[in-house]
Amino acid sequence: EAIPDTVLHASKAWVDPFVGFRGRYNLNDQLYLTGRGDIGGFGVSSESAWNVYGALGIDLSPRTCVELGYRYYQVDYERGALDYDVATKGPFIGVRIDY
Fold first, then answer.
1. CB-CB contact of 39 with 18 (8 Å)
2. pLDDT in tens, the chain (99 residues)
3. Do the strands 18-26 and 64-79 form a parallel or antiparallel pair, or are they unpaired?
4. The 3-state secondary structure of 28-63, one letter per residue
5. Which residues contact 61 (CB under 8 A, 6 or more apart)?
6. How far out from the chain centre does Cα 32 lie?
7. Among 45, 94, 48, 46, which residue's Cα sits nearest to residue 71?
8. 80: which DSSP letter?
9. What pLDDT was estimated at residue 13?
10. Both ends of the chain: CA-CA distance in Å?
């Protein structure tokens, strides 16, 4: 399908209920496995939305860590002319600094 010469921009905000989990398992003093997941929407605003995330992390200091993992996020929202059915997935590397 060809991309039109004119692209329309719009914004839409909505609120959905979510339920989920988060966990961490320490492999040793520095290495850990972490995971989280949630599911939401339930037809309140979006039909469905869900997210899963897993990573191997290393604590560099008491307030800094690096994580290497994978995330999958999907949302299905449709109201009026807006049909937003998107899945985003892939590996990531992240740094977290707690203040």
1. yes
2. 665 666 666 677 889 999 999 999 999 999 999 999 999 999 898 999 999 999 999 999 999 999 999 999 999 998 887 888 999 999 999 999 999
3. unpaired
4. CCCEEEEEEEEEECCCCCCCEEEEEEEEEEEEEECC
5. none
6. 20
7. 94
8. T
9. 84
10. 47
